[in-house]
Design a protein that fits this description.
The radius of gyration is 17 Å and the shape is globular. Strands 1-2-6-5-4-3 form a six-stranded antiparallel beta sheet, with helices on one face. The termini are far apart. By secondary structure, the chain is an alpha+beta fold. Helix 1 crosses helix 2.
Length: about 170
């Protein structure tokens, strides 16, 4: 953190590598392995809190959608595996919501990068990694809008889980 309580600015290439490491490391801990698809890297520009003008930095994030069906009875096991993995890496758990329907867990890695696993409806599980400050590059998709997420016939992303697993889906 700098003197103003902000994380330092990270160059885009390093931020991209940090995000991939956060996502890959988390998925490697989930066994049995699950099916997933990546959304694009998305940059959201920051505004100066006083002037409300862009401050020249952005947040970079990437979402990884788990396409394996998770039974509600397995949510606790999933969050427990992920929480232990993150703590084992020295990451600080910043929140844990064990809600039986929409649980989530969040952590912060050294340097300010964050990672979150959350369950949405209808049982969509999403892993999100963010680097808080990168240089703004004037586009929301600094590495292009490529995604491995399946598309519906109307062209919108389809993150509904579609793969069964004998453990996670039971």
């Amino acid at each position: 953190m700098n003197d103003y309580g902000q994380a330092p600015v990270t160059d885009l290439g390093t931020a991209r590598a940090q995000i991939d490491a956060l996502l890959d490391g988390t998925l490697a801990a989930i066994t049995p392995a699950v099916e997933w698809a990546d959304g694009p890297y998305v940059a959201s520009e920051h505004d100066d809190p006083f002037t409300k003008e862009p401050d020249g930095t952005a947040r970079l994030e990437k979402r990884r959608y788990l396409l394996t069906r998770f039974a509600a009875a397995r949510y606790g096991a999933l969050l427990g595996v992920v929480e232990r993995e993150w703590q084992g890496r020295g990451w600080r758990i910043t929140s844990m919501d064990p809600d039986p329907v929409l649980p989530d867990v969040r952590a912060e890695a050294p340097g300010g990068a964050t990672v979150e696993l959350r369950v949405g409806r209808p049982g969509n599980v999403t892993l999100i990694a963010r680097v808080p400050r990168v240089p703004a590059v004037g586009t929301s998709y600094p590495f292009g809008g490529d995604s491995t997420v399946p598309l519906r016939p109307d062209g919108t992303i389809d993150t509904v889980p579609r793969f069964d697993d004998p453990f996670w889906s039971a």
